[in-house]
Structures are given as C-alpha cells and as structure tokens.
From TrEMBL:
Gene3D superfamilies: Dihydrodipicolinate Reductase, domain 2 (3.30.360.10)
Occurrences of domain DUF4166 (ranges): 280-436
Name this polypeptide is given: Saccharopine dehydrogenase
Domain of life from the UniProt record: Bacteria
Amino acid sequence: MDLADDADFVAGVARLDGAFRRADRFALSGASSVPGLSAAAVRDIASNMDRIDVIETAILPGNRAPRGYSVIASILSQVGGPIDLWRGNRWVRSRAWSEPRNYRLPNGQRRHARLLRVPDTALFPDRFGARSVLFRAGMELGVLNGGVTVVALLRRLTGVAPPPWMSRAAHLIASASHQMGTDEGGMEVSVVGTRDGDMVRDRWSLFASKGDGPFIPAITVRALLRRYETIPPGARPCLGDLMLSDAVAAMSDLSVTQRTTHEMQPTLFREALGERWRDLPICVRRLHSVQDIESFTGRAEVIRGNSLIARFAAFFFRFPKPGRDVALTITKTRTSRGEIWERNFDGRIFRSYLKPSRRHHYRERFWVFDYEQELPVVDGRMSLPVRRGWLIRVPLPRFLLPRSDSVEYEEDGLFRFDVGLYAPLGGGLIVRYRGSVAPSGDPTPGQAAFAVEGVDVGDHADQGPTAGPTSAPCRTRNCSGD
C-alpha cells in the first residue's frame, strides 16, 4: 500500500493488476486521505441516493502541520496551470488554484480553499457515476494562500511553470511560519444528489486538534492492516477496500471528531416553484436541476426587431443576431447566491444572473437592470412574465417594464423554449428566439480521462469488496429530473 496522491500514479497501478493476481497479492495505491478515505466517505453517505450530482472534497490543514518539500512542490507544479475536471458529465478544462470557496470548521474558523487535481477528480467520475467531481485545498494563513495565488497568476500570465527554486523558497517560508496559526485542521466530503425525489446534500466532516491532523493520511493504511487478510488480490486504486466505519475506529485514539449531516439542496427553480415543480415535464425539470455547471446544446431560430429601441437593446444586452438555424449552447452555473446563465448563439454570448425572490418568482439581472419574473405552470408549460423591475436598485414603473412572452415546455422528448421580449411604451419586438436543447456530456468518463495514459481504469475501478452497486446504477439515472 502507498499513500500517493498523484492522480496519474494512483490510476497507473492498475497496469500491474494481472501480475498481482497471479501472485495472489494485492497492491493498493492512494491509501491515504485521497482517494482512500474520501472514497469510503462517499460510499457511506451516498449509499441510498438515487443519483449523484456532485462530489466535493476539501482538505484544510492547520498551519502547524508539517509540510514537506514534495507536498509543496506538487501543489506549486499545478497552480495556475490547466487541469481537466469532470463537470456537468463532461471533461472541462479549468485552472488549478481557482474558484475559491469558504469553509467553516467546528472551532468557528473560516478557511479558504481552491481547486486542485487529485486522484478523486480523475477516478470518482467513473467509480460513482457523478456528474461533477471537485477537490479543493487551502492553508490556514491568508498570507500563504495569497502567495500561492500570486504564483498561479504569474503562471497564467507567462505560461511558464514555477522553477524548482520557487518550491524551495516556498518550503523555507512555510517552515519559518510554522509557529503561526493553529494545530487544528479539517477534511470535508460532501455529496449532492437525489434521494426519494428530493435534492439533498449529505456531508461527512472531520476535525483534528492537538496536532493530530498529520496522522489522518495514514489512517487508511492503519485500518486496512487490521484486516489485510480479507483484501482481495490485484493491483488497483484504493477506492472500494476501506469502510468508513473501519477508518473511524482506526482514529479512535486521536483527537479527532467526525460527523455526518444531511440537508435539503433544492435548485433555484425548484425552490421557487414549490408544488408547481411536479407539474413540469422531465426535460424541463432536468434543465433546472443543475447543481454545479452543465451545458445544453441545440439549435435556435432568432428574430430581431427593427425599431430604434430594439436595436439599442440588442446592442446593449448583446442579444443574438437573426438567423434560422443558429448553434446554441446554454451553460448554467450554480453559485452561492443563485445561478449564472450563459447563452452562446454561434459565438455571440450574453449572460444573466439569477437569484431567489418571493414564492413562485425569481429575479434575473442583466447588467444594471434587474427583473422579477413569475413562474406560472399550465398544462406542463412554464411561462416567465415580467412582474417588477429595477434600474440600479431603483424601482421601475410598470409602464417602463419590458414584456416577456416566454415559455418552456417539452415536445418530442426535448426541452423546447420560445422567448419573446418586447420593448415598453409600444416599442415592439426586441428579440425572439425559439428552439430546443439537450444535455451535453461524455458518457464514458474513465476512458476519456486516461486515454493518453494507456490505462483503462474502467476495467479495474469496480474491483474489490464493493464492486458494482456504486457505479453503473447512479449513472443510468443521471438524466432524471426528479
């Protein structure tokens, strides 16, 4: 067993599977916090979910935890550079050390963490059938996080990876600041998915104090050694051999507390619609069930008005140019405040920012304009009429509101839309676009991730004592809008 946390190395051990089986021996790579312990947590808290949408792991060590040169060099080799992450059921090129997020530890401390690539992000998509898999890490001291952010920015600007001397310098700085901060750290694994028709988030968290955090990476090995004679032969990533209960038992003599929490995780439209949600067709619910980032592709017809106000509005808001068969990609991103909608009509992009409002309504912001729209549902068709509006937070009188003749519905198994916007004061049509879109995504995450490496992780991912139930069934239900 090894404690490796390099994604390609951990996946690559599968090449030795045949040799280890013939020798009746086992080799487990990644028997550490990731992916060993994190996979055990996912399997435990998501065991009764119907569908997994997002798996997200975060590691937040205390500043007094030892940081070796190799760990620092590994992090700096990534930051600012491109990484491939499984998001919205497809591989998306992202930047390491981006998309910061805040976490709160049980001691009340807030920690900041950013995206990195680890074995979880490479192996969990195929193992658990999740639509998105994310991992974040961050240090306790803001000045150290800031320093890494500067390194990431330099790489983005120059395209050059940090030289070795920078890792050595960072190691010296980390050692010099060792007595600052605390010896308290944490780890969190959360799974967002569907259970009995409800959107939920289950979270397993661990909090280590009194300097015991550095022992956590070895807990997986410690737990497995207590029953090593039951581990099946073969060489594979450590994804299905550890039970969370065994890991918890193995840390019973440490200053560590752990807990599992459950909470509802409805999307913006599901929360706004309330009882009307069930009246929507599956394809419409599917588009409004995004828990991370997802894209929907299709074709549209675009008609533009010719009045002066229509032309000005189209220029101001970057509405699409007219056309009959226009390629369309809608990308929806869930945020802490609501959702971001990006509409790409054959390269012409305009965005809007959505947030909650009163019951059966939502608010959508286009730059300095903010509109509240109602969500009536009749015969499975959802309309989106404008009810109120603001300009830089100043309420607009009703006669200055645009008119929205917009509807979303299902036809021939596809999500279809017909959006018409009309100017106030009798200004006529601004823009109308209608068409259909369907979810875009790659159905074979494991093969896509490692094609260049020559490793078919899918052949090995389901080996071990929990083979089978954790992978394919989740993936086959991913298209459900429940």
